[in-house]
Amino acid sequence: MVDGRDCTVCHDPHLSGIGADGQAQREVCLSCHTYRDHADHPIGEDAIDPRTGRTMTCGSCHDPHGSAFVRFMRDDPEGKLCVGCHANKLRTGG
User: Fold this and answer.
1) How far apart are CA 77 and CA 44, in angstroms?
2) What predicted TM-score, i.e. pTM, was given to this entire model?
3) Among residues 2, 42, 78, 90, which is most buried (max CB within 10 A)?
4) Segment 29-39, tens digit of pLDDT
5) Residue 29 within a domain
6) How far apart are alpha carbons 41 and 35 in whole angstroms?
7) Please, are residues 47 and 56 in contact by the beta-carbon 8 Å criterion?
8) Number of domains making up the chain
9) Does residue 26 lie in a domain region?
10) How many Cα atoms sit within 13 Å of 91 on the Cβ side?
11) Is residue 81 part of a domain?
């Protein structure tokens, strides 16, 4: 159970797991969530996660199985998580 929900909300027990490319994961996530909130953030085969060298998926930033951070973020969304890829976006004093 995650957030009070049964595993079968996201997982079909009669199908195989998510492929390495994350395609099935996107389909599962987007069956309930819209991409609207991240419209400017690339995901998919043309977007490579610089931390892992793998295709950027919803799971690159969100852990659907739970997290101590808001929106199931994998790390602190006010710092570490985003800066892991976007260090060039840091604001400097001045």
Assistant:
1) 21
2) 0.69
3) 2
4) 877 887 666 66
5) yes
6) 9
7) yes
8) 1
9) yes
10) 4
11) yes
